[in-house]
Write a structure and sequence with these properties.
By secondary structure, the protein is of the alpha/beta class. The protein contains 15 helices and eleven strands. The structure holds iron/sulfur cluster. The site of iron/sulfur cluster (SF4) has 9 residues, from loops.
Length: about 375
């Protein structure tokens, strides 16, 4: 039994028609409950709920403070390689896009680590394109001998792996796994992922669960909004998070709803996801799963990020670079996508303090790492 079996039932639902059938009364009923059912979550993602965003925001803020306090964890992405064997129509690193590819050496990784540390960041998310050759387990373990000297927490966002491979990485000190399904609709998934191992929908869908089984401290999932109907995609991502959180009580489950950003290639998002849509997706998720972390990246604008801080977000990136070696040698290579909010870590910290939040630079320590 895995989430795929649940997905097989979900895909029978005529989502668009069902979302439009939701009434104001169903939305109001959902807003009176402390524990939401799946049907309540569905109602809060419907067009009818758009008139209740202020009520949802107030409740989402209360729930977030109740479970996470006035805190915001800060982290940075660290790109170590842009080699990728997959064709994903929406990504600059797609194997079809021709540009000089690069993988950092250990001394280059160390330079990046120093540059990030100077910004005061202690949590990093190590990213690479998906290539078992260029981002091999042995390469990642070697990198960890460097990163564990600088950071208290290192997560990965790389190609999906088997459970035993994740166990090896956990042993090396990696404590978090991020893997986005990108799009939950299986047909759309096949249209967008035309070549490479990523075409295996089921293997990717089961990846977060393998991370939980391997002992990852935190597992972050999500859908890339814009690839298909955002209401349906948010709904299934929320159910996936709920499935993992219920089954793996010791793992911190988080969700992100990144939206499409400009990238190399001609793919245009299938659906336009407005700021209001994104807000609704995040608020509904917070009310459905109050204990889930919600990550907000620099893909979003300064204005929107400022507004979203009190509405359920628990983790933010700041001053991100999405290119390999981008902190110590910026502008040398292809970035994965353009960021929107380029404020410094210091500016984000100041903003958080001004809103009454405590920026958290460290809430975890890799065992054996220097303090
Ligand atoms: S989304 Fe990931 S797998 Fe797809 S091309 Fe980009 S880096 Fe490669």
């Amino acid at each position: 039994m895995s989430f795929y079996h649940k997905y097989e039932k979900l895909k029978q639902i005529p989502f668009s028609a069902k979302f439009h059938e939701v009434t104001s009364m169903q939305v109001e009923s959902a807003l009176t409950k402390d524990m939401l059912t799946t049907a309540d979550y569905f109602a809060l993602l419907s067009p009818a709920a758009e008139s209740y965003l202020e009520d949802m925001a107030r409740l989402a803020h209360q729930k977030t403070v109740q479970h996470f306090g006035w805190t915001m964890q800060l982290f940075l992405p660290l790109y170590v390689s842009d080699y990728c064997v997959n064709t994903c129509k929406y990504c600059s690193f797609s194997v079809d896009n021709v540009f000089p590819r690069r993988r950092l050496t250990l001394s280059e990784v160390e330079k990046e680590a120093k540059a990030i540390t100077e910004m005061g960041i202690e949590h990093v998310l190590l990213l690479s394109g998906e290539s078992r050759i260029h981002s091999s387990i042995s390469y990642l373990k070697e990198i960890m001998t460097v990163l564990s000297k600088y950071f208290s927490s290192v997560g990965i966002e790389i190609q999906p792996l088997d459970t035993t491979e994740y166990e090896e990485l956990v042993e090396s000190g990696i404590d978090g796994l991020t893997v986005y399904q990108e799009v939950y609709d299986e047909e759309v998934y096949r249209e967008l992922h035309t070549k490479g191992p990523k075409r295996n929908y089921r293997y990717r869908l089961d990846t977060p669960e393998r991370g939980c089984k391997a002992g990852m401290r935190s597992v972050n999932i999500g859908a890339l909004l814009g690839l298909d109907d955002w209401r349906k995609e948010s709904f299934i991502a929320g159910l996936h998070a709920d499935y993992l959180q219920t089954k793996y009580l010791e793992t911190e489950i988080g969700v992100s709803f990144p939206r499409m950003r400009p990238h190399a290639g001609s793919y245009q998002p299938k659906t336009d996801v407005t700021d209001k849509n994104l807000v609704q997706a995040m608020l509904a998720l917070r009310l459905f799963i109050p204990r889930a972390g919600i990550t907000l990246s620099t893909r979003e604008s300064e204005f929107l990020r400022n507004q979203l801080i009190p509405l359920g977000v628990t983790k933010m990136s700041a001053a991100s670079s999405t290119e390999v070696g981008g902190y110590s040698e910026p502008d040398n290579t292809q970035s994965q996508f353009e960021i929107s909010d380029d404020r410094s870590v210091a500016a984000i910290r100041k903003l958080l303090y001004s809103k009454g939040y405590q920026p958290v630079m460290k809430d975890w320590q890799i065992i054996g790492a220097e303090d």
